[in-house]
């Protein structure tokens, strides 16, 4: 059950960081394409919530995979859009004033939370594999 607790905690932190970042996106504004918005809605918001719920059920292994996949996908998306490609979504293109400060701080926070989320997903998968080997 500790894995379910850690997984749920990381999903809550992930939702808060991404929610605040999304608010900054709206207020600045930094628009996302339809494809980017769809990715964020599904991979960044919906799948982690489903994963957290599944971690508390008999489908915890599926929840572990969904947690790892969604956190890894979100991490790669954030690295690509905030650090690699120079666009309005890149941290260097948003002034560090007003909503820009929230944008930049949460962009980095998202990287940290997603990194921890990947780690929790990996630990969860290792734990479920060890449990299956015992049985």
How would you describe what is shown here?
The structure is a single chain. The chain has 135 residues and is mainly α. It has one domain. The protein has four helices and no strands. The two termini are 17 Å apart. The relative contact order is 0.18.
Please write out the topology.
Layout lengths: L1 H26 L6 H22 L4 H25 L14 H36 L1
Helix pairs in contact: 1-2, 1-4, 2-3, 3-4
What share of the residues does DSSP label as strand, in percent?
under 5%
- How would you sum up the global shape? elongated
Structural domains: how many: 1
| Helix and strand run | HHHH
**How many individual helices?**
4
* Biggest sheet layout: none
Radius of gyration: 16 Å
Give the helix/strand class: mainly alpha
User: How much helix, percentage-wise, in residues?
Assistant: over 70%
Could you give the count of β-strands?
Answer: 0
Instruction: Give the low-pLDDT segments.
Output: none
Mean pLDDT figure: 94
Q: Give the distance, in angstroms, between the N- and C-terminal Cα atoms.
A: 17 Å
């Amino acid at each position: 059950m500790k894995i379910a607790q850690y997984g749920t905690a990381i999903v809550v932190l992930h939702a808060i960081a991404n929610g605040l970042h999304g608010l900054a996106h709206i207020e600045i504004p930094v628009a996302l394409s339809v494809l980017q918005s769809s990715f964020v809605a599904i991979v960044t918001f919906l799948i982690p919530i489903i994963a957290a719920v599944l971690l508390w059920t008999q489908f915890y292994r599926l929840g572990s995979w969904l947690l790892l996949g969604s956190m890894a996908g979100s991490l790669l998306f954030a690295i690509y859009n905030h650090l690699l490609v120079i666009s309005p979504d890149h941290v260097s293109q948003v002034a560090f004033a007003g909503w820009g400060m929230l944008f930049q701080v949460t962009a980095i926070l998202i990287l940290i939370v997603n990194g921890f989320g990947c780690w929790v997903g990996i630990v969860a998968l290792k734990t479920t594999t060890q449990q299956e080997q015992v049985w």
